[in-house]
Fold this protein.
Amino acid sequence: MLAVSDENAAIAFYKAAFGAELLWHLDSGHVVAGLSIDGAKFFLAHESPPHRTRSPASVGFTTVRVELFVDDPIAVHRKALAAGAIEQSPVEEHEHDVTGPKPIKRMLQGAVVDSFGHMWLIGKFLA
């Protein structure tokens, strides 16, 4: 669950930036919502300092990186920037040492920080 300072703005941003689908919306003073990006479900809610949940915008940093795997990371990265995200890194090809039958994994990945301070790594594994 992502803590945000403005739930309705966050819902609009995630729809515009990542094509998120709103699954449900509960408004009982503070909004809690369920969304889905290409079938991957996540929740968001208003930050709640009494319960020790604060948005990255409130504390000035994030401790979470959301990894979003998509068919076209370049297009999604551009769409997120057009919706107001800030580029953390451009989409580039990377190689990672991975144990197992295929020791090197190639990946195409870039990162953005959304309007609420959450970092999104947008990428896909390459053959």
